[in-house]
Write a structure and sequence with these properties.
The chain is about 55% helix and about 5% strand. The chain is built from 51 helices and 14 strands. A hairpin with a 5-residue loop joins strand 7 and strand 8. The longest helix is centred in the N-terminal third of the chain and has 52 residues.
Length: about 1200
Amino acid sequence: MFPNFTGNSRKTRNVNLSGQRTVNPFTSTSWSSGAPSGASQTVAQAQAERRQRQRERDRLKAAIRIQRAWRAYYVRRDARAESRQLLDQLYSGTSDAVQRSKRALPLLLSVFQPFQPDDHQRLRQVAQDLIQTHFGAFTLGVGAVDSAWMTKLARVLLASLERLEPESLASQSQLLLVTLNGVLQRRPESFKAVLAQYYEVLGRCCHHVGSTWESLDLVREAVVAPLIATQVTGRGRPSLGSFKETAYHQFAVSFFSQRDLVLFEHNITSFVSEIDIDRLSEAVFSSKTKDPKLPERQTSSLWLLAHFIALQKARKLQTVDSRHLKTLYFLLCASSSQIRDLFSRDGPKSGVDREKGADLPSYISTHLTSLVEKDEISSLLERFTANHGNSPDSEAEDASFLAGYILTLMFCFPSLGDDIRMRLYLADISTPQGPLPAVKFFWNAMFKTPLFSAIETDEDGSLKVFQNQRRQAGSGSFDSKWHRDWRTTLLFLELYVFVLRLTDDDDFFSVLNPSYDTSASRLRASGLTGAELKKLTRYLKHLAFTLYYYPTETLLNSSDSSSLQELGNEYSAAPSHRQDSRAAVDAEKVQSFVITAGIEFTAFRSLVSTAMKMLYERDSRRPFLPADHWLMTAKFDMSSFVQAVVAEESRRRELEAQDEDDEDGDAVDDDDEMDIDEPPAFTFAGQLRSRHARIEQLRARQRKDARERVLAANGPKLEILKNMPFVIPFSTRVKLFRQFVLLDMNRRRDGNVEPDRWRFSVISRHGDPTEDMGPGHPAWNALSRHKAQITRGHVFEDAMQAFWSLNDGLKEPIQITFVDEFGMEEAGVDGGGVTKEFLTSVTRETFDQNTNLFVSTSKNSYYPNPCAVDQQKEALRAAGMAETSSAWRQRITRLYEEYEFLGRIIGKCMYEGILIDIVFAGFFLLKWASASSDSYRANINDLRELDEELYQGMMRLKNYMGDVSDLGLDFTIADQVSLPGEPIKTVTRNLVPNGENIAVTNENRPLYISYVARHRLIVQAHSQTRAFLRGLGMIIEPAWLSMFNQNELQRLVGGDNSEIDVEDLRRNTEYSGVYSIGDDNEEHPTIKLFWKVMHELDDEARRDVLKYVTSTPRAPLLGFSQLKPAFSIRDGGGDEERLPSASTCVNLLKLPRYSTAERLKEKLLYAVKSGAGFDLS
């Protein structure tokens, strides 16, 4: 193997005979400072020579190309000059015009250059010949011009028209237009390649020549010529079918999409008769595939839409063909976001607004707003019903496109949504079985879809539907069955939510009667039966559950993942956060998912949730469904559900802690201001913010929304509890609420939940607990903020002065010392009982005394005084205070602070588990439940609870049989601004912009009733309610409140209304003094008598006893084990003539040692009924 191996291990010596120093050529680097030597020098020289030879070859090739181009230019210049001479010679003498034009035309086409003025003159000479000879040069025979030259002639004519200055178009374009028309009529197929340029040039003419040009007929002929071109006989002529298709396409894309076609727009009636609107509709609809750039040219799309609307109006069609509706739908979808952005509106404070579109050209604005005019929508529905009735086979498809069109209109013009819904609500749709109200028509259409049956009958049906669709590579084309079915469903839900807002309980429940009369009212005719409501609620429940619990698993498009990684990077700093990174990406994908054209995932889910919640709220107020209809416990492991949700909540807290710094910088300050006059978004000043400020706010809001989506992806069970909590039993949700509070206490107090342990930990953090800690010491300063001296009779005022600055620090334990009316401190140490007495005293003083912050309904349930702000302002005006003064602002701010502080106090009671004997109005509690999403919707039934007299008036108006306009009502309302006890003074406010000029009629009275309810329930008390909820949310997170409905929240605040369970109270009672239970585990004889008496009492008497001892007549929701402090009994002495007494602050009953049950019962009931012996000890 090694033939050269000699057995000698010594390395042989290398002999260099070159005379150069031995150098390794690979050790000489290009960055070394010295010159290469030896072999490396030889290589470098060879490379340099090779580069030099390449440069010489490149220079030679470049010189050859330059010479060739220069020679070609000279040759072409000389050839053009020669051809121009020949052309000029033809027109220098007299000859036959036909022959001359046949010879001149090829010469002209070979030399014409748009930048040469003389060439334009030569073109006019040839055009004159063609016109004089009736285009004899095109006649078949010797010397006739072929099709290739015809196409070039068209290009030359169009180029010449393009070179004309705008001011000379009217005077110099006629000859060229006549020539174009003549050529097009004789050889239309030669224009196919230049139709785009052709219609662009005609659009330019229409834009610049004005609206009264004398050559209108010439332009009209040019515009419609390609659209009505007929076949010219001749061998080898191609069919005009594809030509007309291209012509209509370019007419739509290149002509209709141009701005300010003044001549066309002012004389559209002279054009419309020769335009086939059906073929135009097909061309517009197919333009998405033929011209991919069309959707990108948003301004062009708006002009195309406006011109198409104008053309439809000019045709005055008697029916609406599905193709026309489809085209309108497509065009609206293509520009929907831009239309929505461009059409400005006033704030929601002033009611439903009228769109302005101030940034749009007037022509576009006029025709777009015409789509949502009352007469236009009504006319569309009438024409649609006539056409629909003649096409029963296309019922589902026609209904789907009508649904898509209406949905897009509502998206583009959100402030006119109610007007659109009202027109649809009043319409009847023709069916083979006869006319149906629109609500019932779309219900039947939705009910027949495979989607409905699949979702309604199976809890996992919606999950399977979306997974199947995902496996089929997305949601399909714009016109797929998937989109058609969802459009029908979405419009039904929009319309049904609107109907539910207008429907009072009498109308709603009358439909549940099998023998109800559908002709009694429009609302009853639009209602659903009991069986239909069961199916609908099951469908909504199953669908909403999937949308909230499985968004990342079912609704994602895998092709989007690559563009979404940045969102996850925020959460991927450490390996433990990789799961959160994936959740962030998934959450962003959900946001980008579109369920159908124009409806994004968030809007779709919100609509489904709103319809479901409105039905649930009505059922919770007045049940019409089975008791367990809403529960979905089979979807969870209920044995570990509470622990799983608490784990999700802990994880959510961790993510929020990671984002704390970002949130500080990105927070959208929606709630920071005190709403001195009205919410910022409702003020004119708020609408004049700089564009930069609005963009920055939008970015901050988007970042905030992204964080919320990440949190939602990490807590699906929390999402269910937040958005559809009724699928979980109430008792489980109460346990979760207490667990959330305990989790929050542990987090804030570092695990020291008990008040004394927390105070000791505060002292320990600031030094040695054994040293003296007087005023000025950090520990003393920290704890003193949580202490207060409260004067009897001024509890609310003193409490606010002491604790307002704490903000959410009110969650920590507080220490209260009461001072009597003589300024003496009351004896006692606050071990929790005095705090309870303090909190209940604040609420009692606020609600029982006339503070004017809250008012009560006829059933003594409380809600914020809707007139409070107006009354305060009126009082300040009467005192001569200027609205711009700082004193005015301070007084109004103080009023809002009082509402906010009271919200904190109510939240503190809930946080500590202290029950208060206050009943809040149901509609006010609904605002608590919807505070996290601001989703409360006013309805006529809530108005009944607020003001029975106003409700009855609205019902009389609804059922008025005569002409409502005779009543002289308009869309305004009078709000009281005078204080109670003073002469009544009111101010008139609009329910909608320009409401004083809008009369209430038979048609719009449902909207009037709805707006009155909205004003009274939402708008009038908006600022007060918002301030209260801001304070409540500072102590109790809004997401926790969203787990309950209005009745459940009342039970959470004031306890359970169910019958008092004496045995449960007995098991959770503590005894002290003589009554302490000894080693024999036997109760004292008096205690046995007490429980015997309690068993004998009826429930009302038991509640009286409970209120006497604890200050509330209701038991805690989870039983008396949750009562804090525990119910306790101690010895009250041996005098049997003495009455029992109680210390409500510590839930203590002091019971004398009675010997008989009869005496005990007599004394107990006497004390309870009379309040004797009630004291604080």
